[in-house]
Automatic annotation (TrEMBL):
Positions of [2Fe-2S] cluster 2 binding: C115, C118, C150, C152
Residue ranges annotated for the 2Fe-2S ferredoxin-type domain, each copy included: 8-94
The protein, known as: xanthine dehydrogenase
Cofactor note: Binds 1 Mo-molybdopterin (Mo-MPT) cofactor per subunit. Binds 2 [2Fe-2S] clusters.
Lineage: Eukaryota, Fungi, Fungi incertae sedis, Zoopagomycota, Kickxellomycotina
PROSITE patterns per the UniProt record, alphabetical: 2FE2S_FER_1, 2FE2S_FER_2, FAD_PCMH
Keywords assigned: 2Fe-2S, FAD, Flavoprotein, Iron, Iron-sulfur, Metal-binding, Molybdenum, NAD, Oxidoreductase, Peroxisome
Required co-factors: Mo-molybdopterin; [2Fe-2S] cluster; FAD
Length: 1398
């Protein structure tokens, strides 16, 4: 074609408005374009399509189907040019805070948004589902979120809100929305809530006399009386007037909210533009834009793509590829986009193929089905479903196997754009589909102008790592999958770190065909991914069964041995996990053997196991229940009010740092990051970077005008001057016009190094005595006498791994110079505005009063933005100082994870003495944390870990000692629980091993040694009447039926060979206060304006935990005003000076009392006016007071009384009080793969008199999920060879997804306990304490592994380290297949593992 025949522009609609982009930037993603227009609701969370924060809906008219198709899409990977002819809807296109869409309204008001950064993505995923199916099932609703991650909520409230749109909304004991839009209630037949035990208990009465399950009008009950210590109240609703349980206020409040929801009317949605239908069909008039083949060229020399072609026909594609045989073909961009962003790949010529309808056809004949290669994975799945129904189960087993693996292939957003051609042609060795294609006997058809069409069997298609049989100029036309014959069985298996939206560790397609009459094997294909540089056939195993009798044990043994020998891996194999991967190959084959024998009706021992082996451990539909009593003594405080910013967050109106509009002339900072783990800096050459147009400065340590050191111990440079101390450490700053240019120029800066020895792991650091000088000790009693007196003395060690914060909003900062007097405004995502202010002032050499740090909100923090955020702000401050222009930085996810610190890994050595009945006598513990390369907050983390080594148990003699190790990793930092969970987990691991030795249930050991009121902790703090763990322990055992379920679990395990269940009961106590005395203070500033509105400023920051909401509630309660009269704009150092960081779960205590004190002053000043103007509006009262020259501004301050601890003398009060809780978890483990599901979790938390019970429930659920991730799926790994971080994003670092939370998740707040707390309204801090309870899942898994080991008769003690990933779990089961996969110790000697835990 001649150039004049090509189009150069793209046309699409954005939220209903037509957009024409002339010669679009080929590097620009849809996300970048959307945000450039001011629509900032769509967020950048990871840049690799792994978190869903960037989800939008893209609609197109499908000409073949003659209908509009809606798809959720990751805008961060979607090239802008691919949107030609489509309609894009963002979260702003749905509604706003004044008129939210029902999806937005329900997620907001049912507490589904905390920090809010991920929320627009969830909104758009659910919205897209509803556009395609206005009446989805609950299963479809849960599945629609498989590409979205949330770090705050624990997912339960999001799922609850979404399920109000289901066919049977709120069918589990709550309420439903009827066709008339009113709220109804349906009772749950399976509920354990049996009331008080009386026959006429009001909890058992049918609502309004209507038989179940018919919905009845929901009548709100009267507020329930406060619960007594036993949880019973007189409800007055039984015929006999007997006593009955109080109403669950959580359900009452939920029903009140649901009853106010607007009805969802799918006919009122934004329509697909009619013009785009004509545009897609080619029916536009001459004076209108028309759909054309595109050819767009870029003039930017740094662009990764210089020329783009977009053909519309197969012939056009072949012509283009003939001219450009090395062009990169792109469909979904899910692979290429990641290569470009993270591997810095460049593809000068690119061909976009997703608009070629000829490549999406599906045809079936007598032999099988031919799929067009460019069919998307979502379309592929739908086609497979239809074909299985059409042709029957026997003939379509290969198709069913493909469908099975497709269920867990990435997330919806990726499946909606990625194609089977892309999956095949990239030749990934861990492809989900290629092993199944290969095993099924599939054939690919290739086509080119030069060679025409040719067919290649899949077994001959893959030639090596990322190499295929495709020749230059060829494209993949189609894939043919044959139907299955009688006597043929096909299955697919996959194992990943996380069940859904995760890349495979090992995947396989397995097929066997036997003679129906004789059972002799006629054909077999065992194809594996993850075991070689490409998809491979286990040919030796296939040969071993050829002609053999399928079902004979000798054949099975021979097949497994042949498979293991053939696919054995070296210890240092790329990808790691050599033994686990080898074990999976035979585990999958064993499963296949059993299920195929059953299907073929072959009688053998394994066939009888088929049902349990084929049952998927996938979590079924989730359900949740929250319980708390009503509040009768306060008007506002204690009520379950939704987060005050929730509606802004669900509509995309909430602004985060990077959402702020750019100031004119604003520049961007790019980071030059160290390529060494430890080295001297010999020179930095920035010449090539500075030669790029638009690059303004390259800044190094020599450009710092003030102090270049920071943190509490002043042992870390902001920009290193002589040495780098970890891989990824920023050592220079590039200041340029755009982010892309700054990052490109940063890669051109050359650094000369001299390598120095590096230490990565905490164990290596202990061995080399690489540690900081500080030592912390807690010694009580005579430890040697305790050991001498003990019947059992046991020694061992414990380890707990690091954890990435994975706040959805990466670090960001904007610094705006005022242009005079050395003044700067800093807009930062930080939990610590005061430290940010002070660090930047010292860096620039100006007084702190010239610097104002503003924090509107954060997209999550969890401690990660307490100290390290100051460093990022310092980079932008330095650049703004030198350029006198506004400067911005927003870290990419991989940069954030490499630069910032994580939760400290801990290693401990312990010795315990106990009596034979399990009474603890003494514990010696030596614990070591991996602090990274500088102190940061590591001493504080160590102190909290030391003070939580007792957890909830009385230990008469203690000898605790702790140190912080210095290593060449990022400086590890604060993380929710701040060392507390590490201390408790090491003790609990010790108790588990002691219980094993004593042959006692560990719950008996825990209960036997539990503190009682009056006992004294190792840090000399007595436990007073506020000690409620024994009460909650007893309550949860009764309410969650521990004894019954223990028996049921044991019975299940006795009957099941390869699926095991586990049960754990775990307590926690968490001390509330900062360990540094002076931080235990808060301040507030409150203004009453003449119109009666109130502005509150306080020292705490909002990161999703609802602090601003709670503070507004305190102010409203104290001033006796409605909540909507109170407003909190931001946290800033010019309105709240010298603030403590928002951390330690103390911010509500400190700032709440400060707000209260300020409001109390104002209330006292206004009292005379209120009394004299009784009945008048508060606006009139405020104006009258102002005219009377009454001061309507008050400052408040609060300092925690009596606090202060001396570590040298073990004297003083370390914590003001303890937040306590108990959790019970039940899990089910597939012992052949290590996959598990959490069946049920029950939690009771003592939060005192909660400031906001719904928000506290949300904090409990979110913290639990984070603790569950820390102890199971989240594995932080490094390359030992060079110290580079391996887990740099959601692609290989797996936080829990919506499919990982407990199937049955029950959370209750303790009511009726004595409370004499001198805290704000007698409440307790809640942000951190529940996190440790997430490890109850870890201990339940340990229980399941013990059950598995009993079958294998392993008598050795179980040493279990956290996190319990599928690899750890599978190998711990120690069965014959694991033994078969073991690598001899001598083969590991001198071999460096692929990755290591630090």
């Amino acid at each position: 074609m001649e150039d004049k025949e090509y189009g150069r522009n793209i046309l699409f609609y954005l939220n209903g408005k037509r957009v024409l982009v002339e010669r679009p930037d080929l590097d620009m993603t849809l996300l970048q374009y959307i945000r450039s227009t001011g629509l900032t609701g769509t967020k950048l969370g990871c840049g690799e399509g792994g978190c869903g924060a960037c989800t939008v809906m893209v609609s197109r008219f499908d000409v073949e189907q003659d209908k509009v198709v809606h798809a959720s899409v990751n805008a961060c990977l979607c090239p802008l040019y691919s949107i030609d002819g489509k309609h894009v809807i963002t979260v702003e296109g749905l509604g706003n805070t004044t008129n939210p869409h029902p999806v937005q309204e329900r997620i907001a008001l049912l507490h589904g948004s905390q920090c809010g950064f991920c929320t627009p993505g969830f909104v758009m995923s659910l919205y897209t589902l509803l556009r395609n199916n206005p009446n989805p099932s609950e299963h479809e609703i849960e599945e629609c979120f498989d590409g979205n991650l949330c770090r705050c909520t624990g997912y339960r409230p999001i799922l609850d809100a979404a399920k109000t749109f289901s066919e049977l909304a709120w069918k589990r004991g709550t309420s439903v929305i009827g066709e008339d839009g009113t709220a109804h209630v349906i009772r749950d037949e399976n509920s354990d809530d049996s009331g008080c035990g009386l026959e006429d208990c009001c909890r058992l009465q049918k609502p309004n006399g209507i038989e179940k399950p018919k919905p009845t009008e929901f009548t709100l009950p009267e507020p329930a009386a406060p619960r007594t210590g036993t949880g019973d109240v007189c409800c007055g609703k039984t015929t006999s007037g007997s006593c009955c349980k109080s109403q669950n206020q959580a359900e009452v409040e939920k029903a009140q909210v649901i009853g106010q929801f607007k009805a969802y009317d799918p006919t009122q949605e934004l329509i697909f533009p009619p013009f785009l239908i004509r545009y897609s069909k080619g029916n536009t008039s001459e004076d209108e834009p028309r759909l054309q083949t595109l050819k767009i060229s870029s003039g930017d020399g740094t662009s990764w793509c210089r020329t783009l072609y977009r053909p519309l026909t197969l012939e056009g594609l072949l012509q283009t590829v003939e001219v450009h045989p090395d062009a990169k073909l792109v469909a979904g961009n899910s692979e290429v986009g990641v290569e470009v962003k993270f591997k810095r790949a460049k593809f000068p010529v690119q061909v976009y193929v997703n608009d070629i309808s000829e490549l999406r056809a599906v045809h079936s004949d007598a032999n099988g089905v031919t799929f067009g290669a460019n069919i998307t994975l979502a379309q592929f799945g739908s086609a497979l479903d239809a074909l299985i129904v059409e042709h029957g189960e026997q003939r379509t087993q290969s198709l069913a196997a493909l469908r099975e693996n497709l269920r867990y292939f990435a997330g919806n957003q990726i499946r909606n754009v990625a194609t089977i051609a892309g999956n095949i042609a990239t030749a990934s060795p861990i492809s989900d589909l290629n092993p199944v294609f290969m095993a099924s006997g599939a054939t690919v058809t290739l086509v080119s102008h030069e060679h025409g069409q040719r067919q290649v069997p899949m077994c001959e298609f893959f030639l090596g790592y990322r190499r295929t049989a495709m020749q230059r100029g060829e494209v993949l036309l189609s894939v043919h999958v044959p139907f299955n014959a009688e006597g043929e069985v096909v299955r697919a298996f996959k194992q990943a770190k996380r069940k859904d939206d995760d890349i495979a560790i090992v995947t396989c397609g397995l097929r066997v065909r036997v003679d129906v009459a004789t059972g002799v094997v006629r054909d077999a294909a065992f194809a594996y991914g993850g075991m070689a540089p490409t998809t491979v056939l286990a040919k030796a195993a296939m040969r071993s069964v050829d002609g053999q009798q399928w079902g004979e044990r000798a054949v099975l043994d021979s097949m497994l041995a042949a498979c293991q020998d053939e696919l054995r891996l070296d210890y240092g194999v790329p990808g790691g996990m050599a033994e686990y991967r080898a074990a999976l190959t035979t585990s999958f084959l064993f499963k296949f053997w059993a299920v195929s024998c059953k299907q073929l009706r072959i009688s053998c021992a394994e066939a009888r196991l088929a049902q349990e082996l084929e049952e998927d451990s996938e979590r079924q539909l989730s359900r949740g229940k929250q319980e708390y009593a009503s509040v009768v003594d306060r008007a506002i405080v204690g009520k379950g009010i939704a987060h005050l910013s929730a509606l802004k967050q669900v509509t995309g109106e909430a602004r985060y740092v990077d959402d702020m509009p750019a100031v004119q002339g604003e520049l961007y900072v790019g980071l030059v990051m160290s390529e060494r783990a430890h080295a001297r800096i010999l020179g930095i050459d920035s010449q090539h970077a500075l030669e790029l147009p638009g690059v303004h400065r390259v800044l190094t340590a020599q450009d710092v005008p003030g102090h270049n050191v920071w943190n509490i111990f002043k042992d870390e440079e902001i920009l290193p001057s002589t040495e780098v101390h970890h891989m990824g450490q920023p050592l220079a700053l590039v200041v340029a016009d755009t982010q892309r240019l700054a990052q490109e120029a940063a890669r051109l800066v050359r650094v000369e190094y001299e390598d120095l020895p590096a230490v990565l792991t905490v164990r290596d650091a202990v061995e080399q005595q690489s540690w900081f000088p500080e030592v912390r000790q807690l010694k009580n009693g005579d430890i040697e006498a305790a050991f001498a007196q003990a019947d059992c003395v046991l020694e061992g060690e414990s380890y707990c791994a690091p954890q990435e914060h994975f706040y959805l909003e990466p670090f960001g900062s904007i610094v705006v110079p005022k242009g005079e007097g050395g003044e700067f405004d800093i807009y930062a995502s930080t939990q610590n505005p005061t430290e940010t202010q002070m660090v930047c002032a010292e860096l620039l050499g100006v007084p702190a009063n010239r610097i104002v740090c503003h924090v509107k909100r954060m997209g999550g923090g969890f401690g990660g933005k307490e100290s390290r955020s100051a460093l990022i702000a310092a980079y932008t401050a330095l650049a703004a100082y030198h350029t006198n222009r506004s400067v911005r930085i927003m870290l990419d996810r991989d940069e954030d994870m490499q630069i910032t610190g994580q939760r400290h890994p801990f290693y401990g050595r312990w010795k315990v003495g106990a009596t034979r009945d399990g009474q603890l006598l003494g514990v010696r513990m030596r614990i070591y944390s991996n602090g990274g390369f500088s102190h940061d907050l590591s001493i504080g983390v160590l102190e909290r870990a030391m003070s939580h080594l007792d957890n909830c148990y009385r230990i008469p003699a203690t000898d605790f000692e702790g140190r912080v190790c210095r290593t060449n990793t990022q400086s590890n930092t604060a993380f929710r629980s701040f060392g507390g969970c590490q201390g408790m987990i090491m003790l609990e691991n010790m108790l588990c091993e002691l219980a094993d030795r004593l042959e006692l249930p560990v719950e008996v050991l825990r209960e036997r040694n539990m503190y009682r009121a009056g006992d004294v902790t190792p840090f000399s703090q007595p436990l007073d009447d506020d000690w409620n763990v024994p009460r909650m322990w007893k309550q949860i055992k009764q309410k969650a039926h521990f004894d019954t379920r223990r028996s049921e679990v044991d019975a299940f395990n006795a009957a099941s060979r390869y699926r095991k269940r586990g049960l754990a009961l775990l307590p926690t106590k968490f001390g509330i206060s900062f360990g540094v005395k002076h931080l235990n203070q808060g301040m507030a500033l409150v203004h009453v304006y003449m119109d009666g509105s109130v502005l509150v400023a306080h020292g705490g920051t909002e990161m999703g935990q609802g602090l601003h909401t709670k503070m507004a509630m305190v102010a409203a309660e104290t001033l006796e005003l409605p909540l909507d009269a109170i407003f909190i704009s931001e946290t800033a150092t010019n309105t709240a000076a010298n603030t403590s960081p928002t951390a330690a779960s103390a911010s509500s205590d400190l700032n709440g009392y400060a707000v209260y004190n300020a409001c109390r002053v104002l209330a006292d000043r206004l009292r005379p006016y209120r009394e004299s103007m009784h009945g008048e509006s508060f606006a009139k009262i405020a104006r009258t007071a102002y005219l009377d020259r009454c001061n309507l501004t008050a400052a408040g301050h609060y300092a925690t009384p009596d606090i202060g601890f001396n570590w040298q003398t073990n004297e003083g009060l370390l914590y003001f009080y303890f937040t306590q809780g108990v959790a019970m978890a039940e899990v089910e483990l597939d012992t052949l793969t290590g996959a598990h599901t959490t069946r049920r979790v029950d939690i009771i938390m003592d939060v005192g008199k909660s400031l906001n019970k719904a928000i506290d429930i949300g904090q409990i659920e979110g913290a639990f999920a984070q603790g569950q991730g820390w102890s199971t799926t989240e594995e932080f790994l490094y390359f030992p060879k060079n110290g580079r971080l391996f887990t740099q994003g959601p692609g290989n670092y797996k936080i829990p997804s919506a499919m990982d939370i407990p199937r049955d998740f029950r959370v209750e707040l303790l009511e009726g306990a004595p409370n004499a707390l001198k805290t704000i309204f007698s409440s307790k801090g809640i942000g951190e304490p529940p996190l440790f309870l997430g490890s109850s899942v870890f201990f339940a898994l340990r229980d399941a592994v013990l059950a598995a080991r009993k079958h294998s008769e392993h008598k050795s003690s179980l040493h279990f380290e956290l996190p319990a990933t599928p690899e750890i779990l599978r190998l711990a089961c120690e069965d014959e297949l694991v033994e078969l996969s073991r690598i001899p110790k001598e083969q590991k000697v001198g071999v460096m593992p692929f990755v290591v835990r630090i």
